[in-house]
Amino acid sequence: MDNQEQPEITVSPPPDPVMYSSNTAHSQDIPYDPLPLTQDPSRNSIYHDPPSPHASGFETPPVEMSYFSDNIPAGAAQPRFLGAALYDDPSHNFRDSFASQNTQNTFRTAPSAANSSVYALNPDPSGPGAEHSGAYHDDPHDPEYIRQGGSPDAPRYLAEKRSAYTVSRLKSKRGLIIAGSILAAVIVLAAIVVPIYFVVIKPKSSFNSSASPSSPTSSSTSSGQPSSSVAVVTGGDGSTITMEDGTNFTYSNPFGGTWYWDPSDPFNNNAQAQSWTLPLNQTFRFGIDKIYGVNLGGWLTTEPFMQVYSCCWELIAPALYEKYLTASPQAIDEWTLSEAMAADTSAGGGLQQLETHYQTFITEQDFAEIAGAGLNFVRIPLPYWAIEVRSGEPFLPKTSWTYFLKAIQWARKYGLRINLDFHALPGSQNGWNHSGKFGTVNVLYGPMGIANAQRSLDYIRIIAEFISQPEYKDVVVIFGITNEPQGTSIGQDALSRFYMQAYDYVREASGTGEGNGPFISYHDGFLGLPQWADWLPNADRIALDDHPYICFDSQSAAPMSSYAQTPCSDWGSMMNTSMGAFGLTAAGEFSNAVTDCGLYVNGVGLGTRYEGTYTPGTWPVVGNCTPWTDWQNWDSTMKSGIEQFALASMDALQNWFFWTWKIGNSSVSGVVESPQWSYQLGLQNGWMPKDPRVASGTCANQGIWSPPLQAWQTGGAGAGQIAATVTASYTWPPAKISNAGAVTLLPSYTPTGTVATLPPPTFTYSSGSSVKTANAGDGWQNPSDTASGMVAIATCSYLNPWVGTASPPSPLCGAAARAVPEPLITPSPRRQS
After folding, report:
1. How confident is the model at residue 612 (pLDDT cuts 50, 70, 90)?
2. Could you tell me which of 389, 477, 487 has the C-alpha nearest to residue 443?
C-alpha cells in the first residue's frame, strides 16, 4: 500500500499537567485534597456523620471569598471545603470562622457555612471532645481568644489553624520518633518512584494509549521530572483556551461540558460535550441517546452559497465563488472553481486559496461553540479528492484530509462525535454542485457508471480502514457512505447492491460488533424511508439517512408562523415508523428554510422558485425574497416563528443534523444572505434555541418510537449474521445499470493497482532530553485486507468519468481482456472481540 505524504501536526512541549485525584459525584470538576484531620475515617463520599439532622451536601450556599477569587485560574470553581460538620445548632445557622475571613472581609461579612470543613473544629469544653480543647480554635467569639487580646473584628493570620496540621503536644516523644521515621521512609520511597514514573512508565503509556477510558496524565519535561509549572489539560465553562496559533478565547459551555487536551496523550477520550452526553470514553447509546448534530457544510467540500465570503487571517478575504463569476467557464462548482483558481496567476490567486479557506472557514473555536450550543455531533462532508485525484481532475488533492484530521482532534478535545459523510464521488452520484461537478449522474448510471462505482468502493474501503483504528473509532462513530445518490435515476436494485458491497468493505475493515468501527449510514436515495423497511436484517449497526427539506417544493407566501407544526405533521410519523421498521433513522440534513430564497441556494445563476426565476422549468412568481433574507430587520414575530419551526423539526426528527453551522458573508453585501440555513447566526440573533432539549414535546401526539433498538442493530447478539438468501440477492456488480445496459458491455476497472493509505497525524512532545512521537496508527486497521485497488485495464478503452449520456467505446477491450468480473458474494467479515 502506498503511503501518501503525511501531514504534520506538531505540538510544542508543554509543562507537566497535574495528576488530579478522582472526586465524588457532587464535585466532579473540583479537584482537591482533603484536610489532614487525623480523626476522620476513610471516605468515598460526602460526609454524613451522626448526629447530623440532615444529609450534608450543597444545601447551604457556598460562601464567596474574595481572598481566594483573586487567585483562582479563569474558569475554575470557587473552593468548597466539605468537612465533617457537627450539627449541634438546631437552627443550622451560619457559624463564624477565622477561615472564612481575610484582610478585606471580617468574619461578620464572611461567615462559614454549617457544612464547611472548619466548622466545629473548636469543640465545646463542656461537651464531647473536651479532652481536645487545647487543639484547634476557629471561633472568633472564643473567650480564650478574647483573653489573649484578640478582637472579633481583627484580621486573622490563621496561626491557630496551623495547629490542626501539627502533631499534638500531648503525644509522646516515642510517637514523634515513629511518625518521623514513617515520614522519612515515605520521602525516600517518593524519591525513587516519582522519577521512575515520569521517565519510564508515563512516556510508555503515551505510545500505548488507545481510545479506552483513561485518567488525566502528566507529560515529561526536559529533565524527566515533574515541572513546577502546571499545564492545564482540561476545563469547563469560563476556562481559557489557547489555540495552536497562540490566540485565546474563553470556553462557554453552560451545560457542564468539559474539554480535554494533553499533547503528550493526544488520543485521550475524557472530554464530554455536555453533562447529558456520554464522554467519548463511553459508548454512545444509539436509539436511547439523542443525536443533536450540525453539519460543517461548505468547509472541506465547497458549495457556492455556503462560503461566498470566506474569512481570512486579516478579516479581509476574497470571495471563493464571487471572485470568479466572470471567469470562463464561470465558477459554479468546485470543479470550475478549481480551474479558475489554477488559471489565476495574479497575487492571491492559485489553487492554494482553497487551503486558506480550509484554515479559516472552520476553526477550533467553532467546535468549542458547537459543544457550548448543546450539540453533541458534527457531520463533516468529505470529497474523494481528499484521498487522490486522477488524470484531468482539477481538484486540490489530499489537502482537505489534513484538515479532517484537525477536525478529529478538535472534536475529541470538546467531546463531540463525528458523522463522516462521503459527499462527492468520482463522476458524481447526483449531478449537483456539491458533488464536485454540476451536470450529470455518472455513478451506477450511464456508460461510466460501473467504473466510477468500483472506484468509489475503493475510497469507501480506504476511509473505513482509517476510521476503524482504535485511535479514531470512538470519535468517528458514523460513516455516511454516499451523500444523496439519485436513487430515482439509479434504481433501488443497483443502489442496494452498491450499499451491500460497501457494507462488506466497511465491516471487513472494522470487524463486527459494538465498538468495532462505525455505524454505516445509507441515504434513502430520495426513494422514501418506507422503501427501505426491513432491508438487510441482522446487518451490524446500519442507519438510514433522510434529508427532509420543504423549501425546494412548491412555494408559498404564507407567514413563517403558519409553519409551526408542519415538521410534526410531515416528518414525525415517518421518522418514528422507520425507527421500528428499519432501525436507527436520522435526518442528516434539514434547515429552517421554507422558501428557496437565499444567495445561490439553488446554485450560481439558477434563480429562485419563489421569485419565478428558477431554471430549468417555468415557475410562477410568489413574491419578493427580501423579507426572507433581510434578517437584520426581522421582528420578534418572525424570529419566534423560525424558532418554533426549528423546535418542531428537532422534535419530529428526534435524531438530526442541522444544515449548516455557518454561512459565509457575501463579498458584495458583506452579510449572510441565506440566514435560515445558519445555526450559528440563529444563536447569535435569537431564532435558534439555546438548548436543543427544549424541543422535546413540541409535536403533540406523534406516537414517538420507544427505545431500545434490537440488539443486533447496535452491534449486540446476532449482529452481522445476515442470511445467505439475503446476501445472494445483492450480488455485485448488478447485471445492468440505468442509461447504459448490460455491464459486460461497459468500461470497468480491474483490481491490480496500489491502494492509497490515508496518513495519520503527527503528534510530538518532549520527554526527557528527546522528542517523542505518539502512536497515531498506520492508516489501515485490518492487515489481512490486502486486495489491490481498481485501476484501468491497459487493453481497454474508457470515457471521461463525467461523460453523462454516451455510447460505450467500441471495441471496448482487446480480445484477451475481460472488463467485468463474475458476480460474487463477499465472504462474511471477520468478527473482532
Report:
1. very high
2. 487
Measured between alpha carbons, how far is 741 from 739 in angstroms, rounded to an integer?
6
Question: What whole-number distance in Å separates Cα of residue 83 and Cα of residue 116?
Answer: 5
Longest dimension (CA), the chain: 114
C-alpha cell at 189: 520511597
Catalytic site positions: 484, 589
> For residue 661, with 0-12 CB atoms within 10 Å meaning exposed, 13-18 middle and 19 or more buried, which class applies?
buried
> Grid coordinates in use for 610?
419563489
Tell me 748's DSSP state. -
pLDDT at residue 68 in the model? 38
Euclidean distance between CA atoms 540 and 283, whole angstroms: 16
Which one-letter amino acid corresponds to residue 290? K
Residues 520 and 503: beta-carbon distance below 8 Å: yes
pTM of the model: 0.73
Answer yes or no: are the C-beta atoms of 449 and 737 closer than 8 Å.
Answer: yes
CB of 655 closer than 8 Å to CB of 291 = yes
| Alpha carbons 801 and 553: distance in angstroms, whole number | 31
Cβ–Cβ under 8 Å, residues 601 and 614? no
Instruction: Tell me the per-residue pLDDT of 758-784, one tens digit each, with 9 for 90 and over.
Output: 999 999 988 888 999 999 999 999 999
Q: Please report where in the chains the cell 408559498 appears, as a residue.
A: 556
Give the DSSP letter of residue 78: P
CA distance 410 to 218: 20
The secondary structure of residue 741, as a DSSP letter, is E
Query: Which DSSP symbol is given to 44?
Result: S
Q: Cell match 474558569: residue?
A: 75
Using one digit for the tens of pLDDT, what is the confidence trace for 616-641? 889 999 999 999 999 999 999 999 99
